[in-house]
Amino acid sequence: MFLTVSFLTLLLALSITGSPLEVRNSPIIIPLTRSLNFFNGTTDLVQHDKARVAAFRDYNTHGRRAESIPTPFDSFGGYSVEIGVGSPPTSYKLAVASASAVTWIGARTPYDKTGVDTTVRVGETYGGTFLINTVTLGHGLTIPNYALAVASTLRNFGIYEGILGIGPRDLTANTLIDDPPATYSTFTDWLVTAGAIRQNIVGIFFQPITGNGDTNVGELAFGEPDYTKCTSNIIYTDVTNNPRSKKYWGIDQRITYGDTDILLPTAGVIDTGSSFIYITPDAYGRYRAATGATIDQPTGLLRITPDQYNALKDLKFYIGKGVFSLIPNAQIWPRSLNYKTPGAENDGIYLIIKGLGTSTGTGFDFIIGYTFMQRFYTILDRDNRKVGFALTSFTYATTN
User: Fold this and answer.
1) Ramachandran area for residue 46 (φ above 0: left; ψ -120 to 50: alpha; else beta)
2) Residue 336: left if φ>0, alpha if ψ -120 to 50, beta else—which one?
3) Which residues contact 303 (CB under 8 A, 6 or more apart)?
4) Tell me, what DSSP letter sits at residue 317?
5) Which residues have C-beta within 8 Å of that of residue 230, sequence separation ≥ 6?
């Protein structure tokens, strides 16, 4: 999405003249839902993730502009938040996107003005215009004079009206027509500037799904972590310095299967919009050999037998000074969703580890999708350029 440089001037003026919000001592909690996006009666999650990984890889290989990356939510559902725009508010369901920094609406239906707005001319891709309007969120929070992007050219975005971008500010680069290197405030930046929160922090709690449909399955916490969701201390690690991953929420980690090295220390990214955990082809081969899994042609996923499942060992992620283990049940796709997964057998056992398609050592050696975050509370701390993880009540759950 390309914007004119005058948008920066407008946003600066709003941040100075807008009415400050009350600073809260507790985090702003926004409830999440998760909806499976059905395509011809099935959930095409494998194709969704292929498109998303290809977009990541294309950008990292060819240096395409940031906002052209990872937004294919058209084939499969993820975690979403509902916001209200205008007064009285009109509701919009937005996908939660940690790999994007722009928040926008209008993917499914045209924006119906419910209040007076000021627009800034934008070009190609998603739209459109920027509107200045009132945005309402959960926890009784109303944000006046918020600059929200609106798509003027609609595209297939599945069940969502747009995205809530919680990615780093650097991802707004290359979106201004007159000043491509410039960056501008993200949603969380704005909350800090407006005085709604003290710290530029987002806490993510994703609850595993045991069936399909649209249910309350988690929350976003702005301003500080929601410690009530953590059952351990939070362990933080620095955002990676690797140039290919640091533009996102990138970290360094090592992965073992039991005591077998799967992926040596390297850099990669965390992505709320990816379903699976992706690792380089050589690491994927080691994991496949260690588990005895075979590639299931109908689904493209690794498949194991019941005996192999009973013999599975923990998959361990060494991040910072912590070790975060996916128990055997956390390494498999929810069997309750098999009947909606193309090619899957109802009683099949499929693993959530997939090959990334990039060589080891490129600095983009893994993508940690939401199946990992369903087991560990995740904190994105922009002020300190850190990412944190903690155990939750679902870390050792056997819901899959």
Assistant:
1) alpha
2) alpha
3) 293, 294, 295, 296, 348, 349, 350, 351
4) E
5) 377, 390, 391, 392
3-class state of residue 90 by DSSP: strand
Q: Give the strand order in the sheet containing 302-304.
A: 294-295, 302-304, 349-350
Kindly give, in sequence order, each residue whose CB lies less than 8 Å from that of residue 289, ignoring residues fewer than 6 positions away: none
d(CA 87, CA 137): 13
Counting Cα atoms < 13 Å in the Cβ hemisphere of 252 gives: 13
CB neighbours of residue 9 within 10 Å: 11
Task: Report pLDDT for 5.
Answer: 43
Task: Using a cut of 0.85, tell me whether the model's pTM lies above it.
Answer: yes
Q: How confident is the model at residue 46 (pLDDT cuts 50, 70, 90)?
A: low
Rounded CA separation 209/216 (Å): 10
In angstroms, the CA 216 to CA 206 distance is: 10
- CA geometry: angle at 324 spanning 270 and 166, to 5°? 25
Say whether pLDDT at 156 is over 50: yes
The span from the CA of 315 to the CA of 349, in Å, is: 17
Tokens coding 49: 């993730």
Question: Between 184 and 191, whose confidence is greater?
Answer: 191
3-state secondary structure of 352: coil
Residue 57 has a pLDDT of 63
**Interstrand relation of 277-279 and 215-222 (parallel, antiparallel or unpaired):** unpaired
Q: Which residues of 132-169 are buried (b: 16+ CB within 10 A; e: fewer)?
A: bbbbbbbeebebebbbbbbbeeeeebbbbbbbbbbbbe
Please state, in angstroms and rounded to a whole number, the distance separating the CA atoms of residues 155 and 133. Answer: 23
- Helix residue ranges per DSSP H, 226-329: 281-291, 306-310
Distance, in Å, from the CA atom of 159 to the CA atom of 373, rounded to the nearest integer, reads 22
CA dihedral (317, 323, 328, 330) positive or negative: negative
CB 2 within 8 A of CB 125: yes
As a whole number of angstroms, the distance between CA 187 and CA 307 comes to 47
> Do the Cβ atoms of 210 and 336 come closer than 8 Å?
yes
The 8-class DSSP code of residue 7 comes to: H
Between CA 343 and CA 157, with CA 354 as vertex, the angle to 5 degrees is: 65
Residues 6+ apart with CB under 8 A from 17: none
